[in-house]
Amino acid sequence: MTRVWRWNHPVTVREVLEDLRRERSIAYTTVMTVMDNLHQKGWLRREAEGRAYRYEAVSTRAAYSAALMHEAWSASDNPAAALVAFFGMMSAEQREALRDAMRVVQSADPGDPGETDGSDGR
User: Which family does it belong to (predicted)?
Assistant: First the structure.
């Protein structure tokens, strides 16, 4: 998935194989099987091109990461405690990115009752 996200255009198994072979020895059938599995799971879509397929990501890496975080948080028996623990693991840069993200979300929803006092939550 990392290679497909990085390239951000439809790729063939052969292209991924050639890129991976710069780092290690790997068989064509291994790459083909993994990409087919990702397609079956709904992470990649594919379109036939001659005798091969071109694969592309169904969602962005950011959307995928967000879905994983949401899934993990939703599975918690104490979501508030899970968030506190997660925030405690963040670096200063990550906390600042979180603040920036919250400002974006809050500015997109001007009717949010939690933002009537004009504070930025700091």
Answer: Belongs to the BlaI transcriptional regulatory family.
Return the structure tokens found at 82.
Answer: 């899970």
Residue 102 DSSP SS3: helix
pLDDT (tens digit per residue) in 22-43: 999 999 999 999 999 999 999 9
pLDDT band at 67 (very low <50, low <70, confident <90, very high): confident
Give the residue carrying structure tokens 């780092």: 23
Q: Are 42 and 58 in contact (CB under 8 A)?
A: yes
The candidate with the shortest Cα–Cα distance to 109, out of 122, 101, 80, is: 101
- Give counts: helices (H), strands (E), the chain: 6, 2
The class that CATH gives domain 2-57 is mainly alpha
Q: For residue 85, give both structure tokens.
A: 């623990």
For 42, 65, 91, 100, the CA distances from 61, given in Å and listed in that order, are: 14, 6, 21, 19
* Stated pTM of the model: 0.64
